[in-house]
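Pilot study result, target chain (318 residues):
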Amino acid sequence: MSIKHLRLLCKIALPVLALAGAVLLPSGVSLAEPGVPALSRPALSRPALTVRTTTLREEKWARTLTANGSIIPWQEAIISAQVQGLRIAEVKVSIGDHVRQGDVLVTLDNIARGGNESGSAYSAQGRVIAPDSGVISAANANVGSMPKPGDELFRLIRKGRLEWRADLTAEELMLMRKGMTAEIAVGEGRVVRGVVRAISPSVDTKTRYGYALVALPDNSGIGSRRIIAGAFARGLFDISGGKLRVQSLPQSAVMQRGSKTYVLIVGPDSRVHERPVEVGQRKGDRIQIKHGLKADEAVVESGGAFLTEGDSVLVVKG
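Predicted structure:
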C-alpha cells in the first residue's frame, strides 16, 4: 500500500475511534478532569435555595395577659336638688366643663322671702355648688324648672380621674395582683400606662366574667388628649414583672400549615427537615418557642415557604 493511501486511511479512522470512545465513556464522566478516576467522580446536585440560618435566643420577657374592657369614671358624684319650691334661675355649667370644689353650678330664685332672719338661710340654699373638683359628665338642670329634692341635676367625675375596667375570667383573675402594671390602647396609636388598684372577688354567674380596675394617670380625663369615659379599650397586663426567661426565634422562621406549626432545620448534609414546634407569646418580630427545638440547631431564618422536606440549600453567613 502506498504512503498516500495510508495517510488517507488515518484521516478517516481517527475521528471514528474518537467518536466511539466518547460513546463508550460512562455517563457523568468528563474528559476535561484529568487525574480523577472516572468511576469515582459523583454527579453533583445544585442547591435549591441560598438561605441564612438562626438559632434559639434566650431573652427576658414580661409574661402578658390581654384583656378587653371599658373606660369608666373613677368615682362619679350625683348632684341633686335639696330644697323644694325654688325655681332654677341660671345654669352656669354644661357637660364637659371643669369645675373646682365650691364653684356655683346653679342659682335659684324665689329666695329671701320672709324677712332678713330667714333670708340668710335661704341664701345658702339658693344655689347649688360643686362638692368636689372634676368634670361635669351629665347635666339635667334647665332654667325655669322647679326640681324636687333628690332630683338629679348633674353628674361629676371626681378629680377628672378615669380608670379601665378589664373583663377577666376566673382563671385570669387568679393571676391578678394589686400594683401590677398594664398598658392600655386608647385609640389612634396612643397607649397609656396604669396600675391595678382593685380586683373583683367573684365572677358574674351569667357571663362568667369578673373585672380588674386599673387606675389611669390623673390627667387622662382632662385636656386636649383626654380619654373618653365609656370608650372601649384593649390592654396588656404584665403578670410576670418582666422576669420570664424565654427561648425565641424571628417570626419569619416559624411557619403554619393548617393546625401544624413548624420550622425548617438544616441538617449536616445541608438538607432541610421540618420540625414541629410549640409556640408561645409574641414580642415585636420575635416569637417564643416552648418545645420542639434544641438551643444549637440551625433553623432557616426566612424563605422557608419556598422549601420542602429534603431540599438541599446553600447556607450563607451574615
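One observation from the pilot: Confidence is low (pLDDT under 50) at residues 16-32, 112-124. A full batch analysis is planned for the follow-on phase.
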